[in-house]
Amino acid sequence: MRVLSGIQPTGRFHWGNYFGAIKQYIDLQENEQAFYFIADLHALTTLRDAKRLRQNTLEAAIDLLALGLDPQKATLFRQSDVPEITDLTWILMTITQMSLLEKCHAYKDKKEKGIAADAGLFTYPVLMAADILLYDSDLVPVGQDQIQHVEVTRDLAQRFNSLFGETLILPESRVLDSSAKVPGIDGEKMSKSYKNVIEIFEDPKKQRKKVMSIKTDSATLEDPKDPDTCAVYALYRLFADEPQQAELAQRYRAGGMGYGEAKQAVHEAALEYFGPARERRAQLAADSDTLNDILAEGARKAREKGKQVLDRVQAACGLGSKH
Ligand code: TYM
């Protein structure tokens, strides 16, 4: 089975990215043919600074490798290293209804906030559909916020197939129930655009400060607390095993435990959880040759597959001189 997913290099990765998506990438590389890429073409819709985009893309690759992505098992590449992607995007664009894109959250949310949208933001889901369809992907591990985009991808694949004959594979999204929507420090979905993120590799002192600022209700130390509505508990669950989760839940309900203590527990659990990755990251960051080799080899493999599928698509709709 082909697994594929992408992640934008718009900033450093946060706990939401990890538990919603990256953790799945790492689990799935063991038994599936996995393709993972850094979505620099998507990032260009918000990041217009060549040096930063290039740097962020490399940092993103280092982060993924440090977190356990293994280039022997999975193919890791830069989205912009596979130019076939934009060919397929155009082809899909010609069969995409405006009304389909008008319904998509990323565009709708910005429009509602009065932020001017450009064609890049509006057609972003078509580029994402091309990302998925270009490699015959079966399964797309993502967080909840991307499910809609995978649905759009299925719609477009279906429409293409009905117009031009069976050509594209319909993918399915894969979302983990326990971490589909990781909360940020204000309790809303953790997201770079809400400025509520806790970054995975943030300096421990700064990270602690952020954890201590997670929003809670006004219950006093003695009051019983509800773990099910508390962002601190929701984050603790990600790092802890079941007995630890049950213990904290029980202490919450009993009263007598303050949010400060729970936050400190989250901070410590996170430091321990990502400790080995922090060490690996420091080593990887010092070896840029290996990193460039990994990305070049990844791009080669991805392009090989991408060219085959684009060829099939062009043949189906009458493009190119080869057919
Ligand atoms: P991006 O870069 O915003 O996020 C990367 C992945 O992290 C997940 N995620 C979360 N999961 C749970 N809780 C959260 N708070 C949270 N925040 C982020 C996202 O769901 C995503 O899986 N458009 C995509 C990138 C992309 C892509 C693709 C993904 C481009 N092409 C093709 C899959 C397949 C995006 O902006 O993700």
Description of the structure:
This protein is mainly alpha-helical and 323 residues long. The protein folds into 2 domains: 2-181 and 287-317, HUPs (Rossmann fold, 3-Layer(aba) Sandwich), CATH 3.40.50; 201-282, Orthogonal Bundle (Tyrosyl-Transfer RNA Synthetase), CATH 1.10.240. The protein is 55% helix and 7% strand. The protein has helices at 15-28, 40-43, 50-66, 84-93, 98-102, 105-112, 119-122, 124-133, 147-164, 204-212, 231-239, 242-254, 259-285, 288-317; strands at residues 2-7, 33-38, 74-78, 139-141, 172-174. It has a 3-stranded parallel sheet. Strands 4-5 form a two-stranded parallel ribbon. Helix 4 (84-93) packs parallel to helix 14. The protein binds tryptophanyl-5'AMP. Tryptophanyl-5'AMP binds at residues 5-8, 16-17, 20-21, 39, 42, 128, 131-132, 140, 142-143, 145-146, 149, 179-182, 189-191. Belongs to the class-I aminoacyl-tRNA synthetase family.
At the first level of CATH, the class of the largest domain is Alpha Beta
Structurally, the number of domains stands at 2
What is the count of helical runs? 14
Number of strands: 5
Q: What's the CATH topology label of the largest domain?
A: Rossmann fold
How far the N terminus sits from the C terminus, by CA atoms, comes to 29 Å
Specify the CATH architecture of the largest domain.
Answer: 3-Layer(aba) Sandwich
The distinct ligands, each listed once, are: tryptophanyl-5'AMP
Radius of gyration, whole Å:
21 Å
What does the largest sheet look like? 3 strands, parallel
Mean pLDDT: 96
Strand content: 5-15%
What is the strand arrangement across the widest sheet? 1-2-3
Element string (H = helix, E = strand): EHEHHEHHHHHEHEHHHHH
Can you identify the CATH superfamily of the largest domain? HUPs
Structural class: mainly alpha
Q: Percentage of helical residues?
A: 55-70%
Overall 3D shape: globular
Low-confidence stretches: none
